[in-house]
Every structure is written in C-alpha cells, then in structure tokens.
C-alpha cells in the first residue's frame, strides 16, 4: 500500500453531456511531493479512506488486507504528520472484514465503518471504535436481513456518528445510520425506488443536516445527492447524469 502527500491544484474540465452549455472549470496544477511511504504486510493491502486528528496532526488510514479468495481483515494505520508510522492494527471477526471509512472525534477516538460477513450477500454494516493507541473500544454491526455495507463515515459537533452505505443485495437502497460515540444505535433511514441507489460519502452542515453523495441506477448510472435533516428525515434529492471529467492533455 503506497501513499504520497502532495500540495495540489488540479486542472480539470467538467462537462454534462446532453446539455447545450458546457461547464468548464480550469485550475492550475502544481505537485510538490513532501514525502511518500509504503506499508507491506506480505499480503494484499488496500487503502480506502483517510482522516486527520485536528488536535494532534496525526493521520489515520483505513482499508483492508488479506488474500483474494481466502480472507480479508480491516486494516487501520496511524502516522504522525512527518509520515512516521506509529502503529497498525488489523481486525478479524472470523470472516471477511472491510474498512471503507474512517473519522476522528473531538477526544481523538478513531472510528471505522465498513462491512463484515462470510460470503455474499451475507454482509452487515460494521462500525469499530479505537483509542489513539490503537486499542479497540467496541464494535457494532447492523443487519437488515439482506446485504448491508457502510461506505462513508462522518462525525457531527456532538460526536455522533453517521454512516452512509447500501442495504439490499438486489440493486440496493441508499442507507444512512446514526450512532452515538458510545456505540448506541439511534436510527436508520433509507432512500430508494425501483432502481438501485448507493451512498458512498457524506457531509454534515452546521445545523447537522446530512448530505449523501452516491449514484442511482437507471438506464445508466447517474450522480445522486440526497439531503436528510438531523432526525434522519428525507428533505430532497437531486440527480445529475453523464458526468465526464477531462484532465488537461486528454
């Protein structure tokens, strides 16, 4: 697993095909590498998300490692701001465990969201809590009775946890889960229809409204944005289709 730290200003164009007006947003790019590091445990390693502890500057990378067709475990690695590894931990629950999202709360506790199961579609949403030394505090799973996965994780100003993901194996609905910092389940909300909707990442505003980005499957796959209020009620949703990102030189 390789990581590089860059100072960057991407140069790209965005076009929504099918509309007469093209939208172009051009920025200059400058890449200056401060350092790069790699992590090797003798198996396959995948980095899926990254979070920074604002109080210390420490960096947390989450993913999973293992061997295809054998077993995968959650992988969490801590680095300081100079890129020096502080520790790494893996988490195994006897099946396949995947880490997809990571977040740090105001007390420097680290949370991981992902999925946990044996064989598809018998997977549940997974939520883990670690202290800043890498010691596990607790874990939680959420099971709808079908395929479930947590992809994105964010924390609000009261250290409540929100997980965006997917529920149901066939096509699937967008899923939003809320827990408090002690691991107490608060509520879940779903958004879906006759086609599939998946939630991949989320953001929380100053009023604790939640915005989830993902995709909806119609004749093609379109960008999906859904807003929920702080109680988990659906407020609105928007779609945007045929998104093409063109880097300079293409």
Provide an overview of this structure.
- By secondary structure, the protein is mainly beta.
- It has a single domain (2-247), classed as 6 Propeller (Neuraminidase).
- Helices cover 0% and strands 60% of the residues.
- It is built from no helices and 20 strands.
- The chain has strands spanning 2-7, 12-16, 32-38, 44-52, 59-67, 71-79, 85-91, 96-104, 110-117, 123-130, 136-142, 148-155, 161-167, 173-179, 185-191, 197-204, 210-217, 221-228, 234-240, 243-247.
- Strands 4-5-6-7 form a four-stranded antiparallel β-sheet, with no helix packed on it.
- The radius of gyration is 19 Å and the shape is globular.
Number of strands: 20
Task: Output the helix-strand order.
Answer: EEEEEEEEEEEEEEEEEEEE
General shape? globular
CATH architecture: 6 Propeller
How much is the radius of gyration in Å?
Answer: 19 Å
Order of the strands making up the biggest sheet: 4-5-6-7
Per DSSP, the total helix count is 0
